[in-house]
Amino acid sequence: MNETYTAQTIYRKPDEGYAGPIFTWDVDNTYLSTNLHSLLGMIGTAVEFAVDKKPVPGAVWLLRELRRERSESGELQRGGERRPIYFVSASPAAMRPVLERRLLLDEIEFDGITLRNWTGLLLSGRLGAIRTAFAYKLLALLGNRLVFPAAASEVLFGDDLEQDPLIYATYSRILEPSSAATDICALVSCHGLRRSDARYLEMLAERARNATAARRAVARVIIRRDTTGGRCVPYECTEAHDSRIRAVDDMLQAALVLHAEHIVSLPGVHRVALGMLDEGVRESRLWESLERSVQRGLCSDHTARSLAEQWGSSIGTPIRRTPAEGFGA
């Protein structure tokens, strides 16, 4: 039944003994800037060529940092295992060649991609599952979890334009050992899932729980806030879904959250900032983002001061790239 909803492609699986982080990214408005606010925008997104698609500022640079296997100094270890990256998107499976071409253009290594099987859903009469991504994404995440190493923990990336905070919070709770008695059928009944499909989801969730040995299967959830057209969901509303969720304004703040958790090095955070500058983000916006990160507790004063020293030591001073801080460092 999972194939009715999902079109999963796993190119590489981590070694069975891998106990590090696995990064799962949404595509629309997380990796790629997408206009989902109008019918014309959605149609335009569907027919764009790979070269026409534009990444969210900083996303490419953050993905590259996540791929790195860090040494104690925070730099890439030669011969070290690359940290796994997977994509899960509600886009139709026919978009796979375009998305993979875009990833190639951005020089992003990844290990798998799961898209929605719109053809299978239409042929089986599951129109409700096309209107909402809730059931599909839960099935896709659980399907991936079954091929992940038992001791690995996940870091999930999404946006607040659709249902990612609720989906990721539900998925996180499903994988907790204490949720064995959760009535998943009741949980998803209002999200376009047939009872037979809900029972299958319940069985899949139990298998995923039994296959998970990590203390917290989901370690962190990063939600990028969409502010297009004046839309702005309060931070606290997004984070209320689950304590693991952090709402961020941009990829600099995402990098700072992950630096605090020893996933991205400080030089890596700096590279993300420099990448955003190259993509046209104003320097003043980066300073504002850094200030807000401190105010919201996303990073420490010490981290902010260290970054400020690299950027120019005071608010309003241009961020400078030094020879030792190239993108390939």
Quick tags:
329 residues; 15 helices; alpha/beta; seven-stranded mixed β-sheet; Rossmann fold; disordered C terminus; 2 domains
Short description:
This protein is α/β, with parallel strands linked by helices and 329 residues long.
Strand order of the largest sheet: 1-4-3-2-5-6-7
Given this structure, which CATH class of the largest domain is correct? Alpha Beta
Tell me how many strands there are. 7
> How would a crystallographer describe the biggest sheet?
7 strands, mixed
Please name the CATH architecture of the largest domain.
3-Layer(aba) Sandwich
Q: Give the helix proportion (percent range).
A: 40-55%
| Contiguous uncertain segments of 5+ residues | 37-47, 71-79, 321-329
End-to-end Cα distance:
46 Å
Please name the CATH topology of the largest domain: Rossmann fold
Number of domains: 2
Shape: globular
Number of helices: 15
Task: Provide structural commentary.
- By secondary structure, the chain is of the alpha/beta class.
- It folds into two domains: 2-248, Rossmann fold (3-Layer(aba) Sandwich), CATH 3.40.50; 264-329, no CATH class.
- The protein has helices spanning 2-5, 39-47, 59-67, 96-105, 118-123, 128-131, 134-145, 164-174, 184-188, 195-210, 235-239, 251-260, 266-278, 283-295, 301-311, and strands at 6-10, 21-25, 85-92, 112-116, 153-159, 218-224, 245-248.
- Strands 1-4-3-2-5-6-7 form a seven-stranded mixed sheet, with helices on both faces.
- Helix 4 (96-105) links the parallel strand 3 and strand 4 (112-116).
- The longest helix is centred in the middle third of the chain and has 16 residues, at 195-210.
- It is globular and about 60 Å long.
- It starts with a helix and ends in an 18-residue tail after the last helix.
- Residues 37-47, 71-79 and 321-329 have low confidence and may be disordered.
